[in-house]
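Field: sequence (string)
Field: structure_tokens (string)

Example rows 1 and 2, in order.
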Amino acid sequence: MRYHIVVILLFISIPAFSQQSNWEAAGIHTGGKYINTICNDTVNDVLYVGGYLWFSNNLDSGYVLRFRNNKWDTMPNLFNGLNGIVRSIVQYHGEIYVGGTFDKVDSILTGSIAKWDGNSWSKVGNGLWASASNKYGNIWKLRVYNDTLYAVGIFDSSGGVTGINSLAKWNGIKWEAVNDLPLLSHSGPYNDLRDVGFYGNKVFVGGNFQNDTIDDLVMFDGANWVKPDIYVGGGYGEVDVITNYKGELYIGGNLDMNTNSYIAKYNGTFWSNVGTGLSGGFYIPTDFRVHNNELYVSGQFYYAGGIPAKCLAKWDGVRWCALGGNFFRGVISALEFYHDTLFVACLDSVDNVFANGLARWIGGSYVDSCGVSNIISKNNIQPFKISIFPNPTTNSLVINGEQICEVQVHNSIGQIVKQFSNKTKNELVINVSDLKSGIYLISVFTSKGNYTQKIFKE
């Protein structure tokens, strides 16, 4: 018999106030490019977007745009002045810090990070660099916690300071390592870290890294870096985003957990599911934002808590709700609130409205639907054994586990391209020789829970 962790799921439909779209274009034109980050500078009342952009007049923007006094403009001295891509923007001590994959801003050698003081650009210490490749590193995220600026990404040095291993903090004068984080990966000279979060005296770092004992999430417990009591899934799992909400720590990404939920939370003692989580996508989620005591989640997914919620949903601590909106490309890369209005970075159109890369919410308090579930809030997320091999594969896949009921093969946009039923056997061999080359998501449903893994078809 096939069982699920959540056994009761009710749906409450709330009628739409209008058949019209609840979204509109926010007034920029990315020229087919993309936005990686959105930042609300509450000190100076400015909204920033960063990535790889074009401005609405088709002039190159230098990868950062700002919205102030109800209009968009470019940042000074960034026209052909930033030789890379912006991935993160934060406001810190009244100034704007920009991180990403670049080494120069306005002809200044900066090393992956620069700051804007309202008048000019400057470097931040000696920058952050990847010494093995003798070039600039990559900053995935900038975070501010307890009045300290942190950077995570792919780098290992700053000037004469070495051994930073992709996690650094700014002491006002120079960059320094955080609690002597070691090299965590067997696959290269750098850690690939995507985000950092804090819970009490603990530091959590997520990313894409594996060694003999730790995979994709590591915790500093006040004395040592250790593996948290949660299975993420080495090789094809990763943790991309971390935040705090209602006294708990939330993580999101490609979590190859038995729940197949892509999101989990931690209360200081144990990890648990977030309702029935997110499903139906590939690289999810991409961003978290807390607003009006609710957690907003963006990414590439199609369901939240079992209800249709394409790319965007919100969680109130008890249930998931959808805001509606058909995002054509099937992904939202970032979200932020400005003047109580939600902005989302989408690649194309929403509800047949051409958004040009950035859309804003005009739906007021409209909610598409909400689901209510009997959350088992004090259930630890426990690993169970599922193996899928070979990976990469050419003709077939062998799936070993406990009481396998069903296997689904999803393509990169979440469509089921193959489906196999099984009578609770412990091994299943599936033929994938007719699939095109590329990455696929294998979902395995068992009597003990669900499991997901990416595979590459050669």
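Row 2 begins here:
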Amino acid sequence: MPRDGSLSSWCIALTVSCFATAAEGQTSDAAAVRLEYSAPASCPDEETLQDLVVSRLGRLPFSERAANAVEVRIDAQNDGFHAVVSSPTRELASGDCDDLVSAIAMVLTLSLDQAGDGAVATTRDVSQSQAHWSLELSDGARAALQALEDESPQASPAGTAISTAPATPPRRLSIDLSVSTSIGSLPGVGLGGSLGMTVRRGRFWLQLSGAAEASAQPRGAEEVRGVLAGASLAGCGVIEPFFGCVSGRVGALILRADQVVQPSWLASFSASTGLRVGAGFCLGNAYLSAAFSLEVALTRPEFFVGDSLVFEPSPVAGALSLGVSWFAS
């Protein structure tokens, strides 16, 4: 009997211990969150972000079994990197992904630390934490956090979130140079180039450029030469690495037929509108791109030599271009 009693006591103790361990695990999972992280390959990985949070928070707040999740999504853009952090939604931007991840770690640390106390991170918390961890943050990370703090209402009562408004992406100016070949707008195949500038903010561009193309095409005993020069304005949207633009162009179409008694250049007003699609990537301080465009002629002047029609622009013209842009700011 004493042996049976000891065995029963041991079984009871083991059962209680198992329940206690399970309850502790459930409590730990309830206090933790599940991190869902996505970023370009050039950015720090999920483990790096977790290590930054743990080093500041002093504990591991993440668990794959946690019911609640916090999502961190980083996208590469032409002007740097843009991040969206959920629960609640906050947006940060930086030109350097390492700095951006460091700032994200700060935001997560504040949220998780305050959540453990039943509070929400405030703008004051950001300022105090920046001062506390100033030696650990680079200038870029501090700038990203400062932008987030500046988006918050200055007169917010205690307990309001840092910011749920999108951070305004920085504006960048680039100088653009391209070469192109076209068909339909000039006699034969046109070759030319353009020089312009682009203002970029987030996923949107505004481009202003001047371009010129030239061509020559034999027509029987004659050779018809043409020049198309003008200016264009385009608005573009970007989903990396692709972009699409709607453009308009005005200028002059100039032609000359050499095999006549008195050769002369004949000019006429030219206008068109069209679409351009392409792809590009950043290389240091430059942006390399390739694009295809289709333009619909709004004017179609006819050129005659005597009674013979020498040239009339096609209703639709196509072009291929290669370009390089240098960021000036």
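free_text_note (row 2): The radius of gyration is 32 Å.
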